Amino acid sequence: MTIDALSLAALADEAKTWRRTIHQHPELLFDLPKTAALVTEKLKEFGCDEVVGGIAKTGVVAVINGNRGPGRTIALRSDMDALPMSEQTNLPYASKVENMMHACGHDGHTAMLLATAKRLAESRDFAGKAVLIFQPAEEGGAGARVMIEEGILERFGIEEVYGMHNEPGLDVGSFAIRSGPMMAGGDRFVITINGKGGHAAYPHLSHDPVLAGAQMIVALQAIASRFTNPFDPVVVSITFMEGGNAGALNVIPASIRIGGTIRTMNPETRKMVEERFREVVVSTAKSFGSEAVIDWRPGYPVTVNDPEKTQIAAAAASAVAGTDKVDTNWPATMGSEDFSYMLEKRPGAFIWLGNGDSADLHNPAYDFNDDAIAHGIRYWLSIVGERLDGATA
Q1: Phi and psi at residue 50, in whole multiples of 5°?
Q2: What is the DSSP string of 169-184?
Q3: HSE-up of residue 187 (Cα within 13 Å, Cβ side)
Q4: What value does the mean pLDDT take over residues 151-179?
Q5: Hey, how many other C-beta atoms are within 10 angstroms of the C-beta on 261?
Q6: DSSP per-residue codes, 76-104
């Protein structure tokens, strides 16, 4: 499916306006009333065949039927939520909400998919159905999982799913993808170590949880260095340790807490690492006369691209940018993405869109690059062309 240069430029410029409006009014997790209202208003204005809101609280799904007869039903997904951060860009359209900003580009993702919806509803030059998913709560809320649990895949007959995310450092107009595991599974944990407090001058009368915690931190690093294949990436990061009282430096505390995150690229490795983690934590605490209580917080699964759909996505991107601007062996990242839940249920692919020389994601100086908008729109239209033009049921 193609679009002429003048129409694309006008559409991208319109999307830029939507993007900057969303950027000024960021919202978090499932609480996206303004963003969802804007999305719903536009989708209805475009004449989509169905516009369904209130999925996963503020998620919105639109259905657009092609005019070339029956065919596949594919889904294109964008995320809508922002992050609890204070913006430091000094842009004229900077966030107007304290301690909230679009530091991951979901404002751009939403605007590009809205523009795609407008074009598809105007032309309808495809077979089958395009389902456009505007998802809340990607940033830690597992909004994709909630939408799945509320039945969107079955309700809308979705057969394939495609996602896209901007990538700082990748040239604008370029794309990157890889087959198989693309982003890590990310789990979190908090460990409470209960020992026996006492006077620091008489440590033998206590069971020091600080010492147990220190040994535990070191021991946990052996999971990655000694219990997993070095070609199978695993990251174990302890990110906080708290306990005791700086005003009572002669007191051994009764308990402390440590916590962090574990990232893995292989679903089987993920299970093994959790098992080993529990063994190390419990046994280390016990060896120091303490008890460990584990609060394990499962995170997003590994994002795994279907091999066939990866080729399709790469072909769609190549039709937009040329093969020289599509990297099909982009290194996997230890970051996580809840589109992984959709890829567990339906075949599909997740691709990176170049954001140019910008600040990193989740950085207070980050801003989505509006020059990328036209390329993102063309990619979505290209996916629809690849999968729905001339498709038969």
Answers
A1: -140, 140
A2: TSPTT-EE--SEEEE-
A3: 24
A4: 98
A5: 18
A6: EEEE--BBS-------TT---STT-B--S
Q: Give the residue from 388, 389, 390 showing the smallest Cα distance to 158.
A: 388
Distance CA 259, CA 256 (A): 10
Residue showing tokens 């959709």: 342
In angstroms, the CA 173 to CA 264 distance is 30
- List Cβ neighbours of 374 (8 Å cut-off, separation of 6 or more): 8, 9, 11, 12
Report residue 254 as tokens.
């009764």
Query: What burial class does residue 123 get, using C-beta atoms within 10 Å of its C-beta: 0-12 exposed, 13-18 middle, 19+ buried?
Result: middle
Structure-block tokens of residue 303? 């994002």
Rg (CA), the chain: 24
DSSP state of 36: H
pTM to 2 decimal places: 0.90
Q: Of 22, 184, 15, nearest to 101 (Cα)? A: 22
Asked whether the predicted pLDDT for residue 94 surpasses 50, the reply is yes
pLDDT at 34 over 50: yes
